Amino acid sequence: MSLVAHDEAQSLKERIFAAAITVFAEYGLPGARMEQIAIEAQTTKRMVVYYFKSKEQLYQAVLQHVYAQIRETEQQLGLEHLPPVEALAQLVKWSVRYHATHADYMRVICMENMQRGKWLEGFRGAEAAEPYRVVDNRGYFTTRPATGDFPGRSAGARRAPAD
């Protein structure tokens, strides 16, 4: 395959993927159709199937991408270096901005949540879909999974209410 043909194929695959995010955000997995994705990507259903095999596999790829993008961006915040209250405030501000600028991602996640995470269970790397932990398993506010001593305790962090 020539370099130009390879670039065109990659471009088509990326267009299909971007179209899938848009269509899944609008209709969810049950309501989305491969034909809609093909039309949005300006290609044929046959090409969508060629690259992604099935609607379900394409949906799982979209979910993995959406969650990976969120977690990758979130990790760049460096919240583990901040006092807990400040880290929580930064996380909330970032989340609001991210949701506003990535509406399709949030809608895909909402659609998956309405299916009770059915499609998250089936792929490797599902830990990327776990929420950024705000309260550790001892009830203390934290900005990362609870391992070892809670860094905010010495800074006067309060214990979360026991519900």
Give the CATH level 1 class: Mainly Alpha
* Rough outline: elongated
Number of domains: 1
- SS field, number of helical segments: 6
CATH superfamily: Tetracycline Repressor, domain 2
The CATH topology label is Tetracycline Repressor, domain 2
Ends apart, CA distance between termini: 60 Å
Report the β-strand fraction as a percent range: under 5%
In angstroms, what is the radius of gyration? 20 Å
The poorly predicted ranges are: 125-151
Give the CATH architecture.
Orthogonal Bundle
Helix content estimate: 55-70%
What is the N-to-C succession of helices and strands?
A: HHHHHH
Structural class from helices and strands? Answer: mainly alpha
Question: What is the number of strand segments?
Answer: 0
| Mean pLDDT value | 76
> Major sheet: size, sense and barrel closure?
none
